[in-house]
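Just curious: can you write whichever protein you like plus the matching structure tokens?

***
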Amino acid sequence: MSHEHHNHNHGNDLTDKKLLFSVVFNFIITLSEIFGGIFSHSLALISDSLHNLNDTVAILLSYIARKISKKPKDEKRTYGYKRVEILAAFTNTIFLFAIAIFLIIESIKKFYNPEIINGKLMLVISIIGLIGNLITAVLLFKDSKENLNVKATFVHIASDTLSSVMIIIGAIFIYKYNWYILDPIFTMLISAYILFEGYHILKESANILIQGTPESMEINEIKKELEKLNYVEDAHHIHIWTTDGQDKYLECHVSLKEDIEYNLDEYLKELNHILNEKFGISHTTIQFEKSLCKEGNK
């Protein structure tokens, strides 16, 4: 049995500071949108603020996860603490679903009984929200190219930016033409988008928590690639999982062909090279065998 593990750099202090600043900055913007939505009677602005609140929590989780992930592995947490982020994302998405459904119900009520909205206040607050999202997006853009965790946060902020643009368009029409009906319509659109976005996050986080095969991985492709080697008779019992959506782990059995001179260290080095270069798998547990498991390999 052999094990290959590689330590990953969890980012520098500057990235942590950017994330922490983004948390505080976005929370202030969220509060301004919540109070702005309440005083202007705009449900769309409140829905956007709750979406921003979710993203603020997502950034906070990203920051905390980076801190926790630096804790050393121990005998009880042999994989470390990376999955804490996934568990938090799963819980956070469930909460986001509840908010979106609540907003859809409220928007239906407002659709049939629209309220008078302070379009000017709605416009001012939504512009502040847009500026806040743009600043955060610029702040995280560079790091999003180097870290998948930060990239996920950046995607959230980018979607918020589009949402803010939609709110501004609605606020202009409400301010100029008193089209109050746009408020519940835009609320439904934003809520539908939240559900769509949340579904994919929920699906991915649930798959990681149950140690499902990452969507980007095809076990049959890996099996065929390994079996191309002249010393491999069969590759089976292949299991692939991830702890945090980034680091991928693989364990498998490799049956070696008989009547050849074995060089296990070289075999292991070549197998790990293929798995890392072609599939991005850098953590492996590979068991070599001759006749064991040859019947009913799966």
